[in-house]
């Protein structure tokens, strides 16, 4: 039996998320920060995540990828976040 790669495709995600509402980057960031607060993460950690994601947002803006969040692929995340 093959091991799962821990990534869900768009079709798999659509089965999990019945809500068809689309979120922009800013809304998604706010939801993420709210989730961090609900999980009682340290304010330092939340600030770090927020700053790093704002930098990522700038990278996406520079590459004109912010207008379509669905166009952000795993490879783009690797190139813009992990490699920096």
Task: Write up this protein.
The structure is a single chain. Helix 2 (25-38) packs antiparallel against helix 3. It is globular, with a radius of gyration of 15 Å. The protein is built from four helices and no strands. The chain has helices at 10-16, 25-38, 43-62, 74-82. The chain has 84 residues and is an all-alpha fold. The longest helix is centred in the middle third of the chain and has 20 residues, at 43-62.
State the separation between the terminal residues, measured CA to CA: 35 Å
Number of strands: 0
Strand content: under 5%
Main pleated-sheet profile: none
Q: Uncertain segments of ≥5 residues (pLDDT<50)? A: none
How would you describe the shape?
globular
Radius of gyration over all CA atoms, rounded: 15 Å
How many helices? The count is 4
- Give the SSE string: HHHH
Arithmetic mean pLDDT: 82
- In helices, the fraction of residues equals 55-70%
Structural class: mainly alpha
Short structural description:
The chain has helices at 10-16, 25-38, 43-62, 74-82. By secondary structure, the protein is an all-alpha fold.
Any chance you could write out the topology, listing elements then pairs?
Layout: H1 10-16, H2 25-38, H3 43-62, H4 74-82
């Amino acid at each position: 039996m093959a091991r799962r790669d821990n990534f869900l495709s768009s079709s798999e995600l659509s089965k999990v998320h019945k809500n068809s509402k689309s979120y922009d980057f800013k809304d998604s960031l706010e939801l993420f920060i709210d989730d961090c607060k609900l999980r009682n993460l340290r304010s330092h950690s939340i600030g770090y995540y927020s700053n790093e994601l704002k930098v990522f947002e700038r990278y996406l803006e520079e590459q004109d990828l912010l207008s379509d969040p669905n166009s952000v692929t795993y490879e783009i995340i690797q190139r813009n976040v992990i490699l920096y």
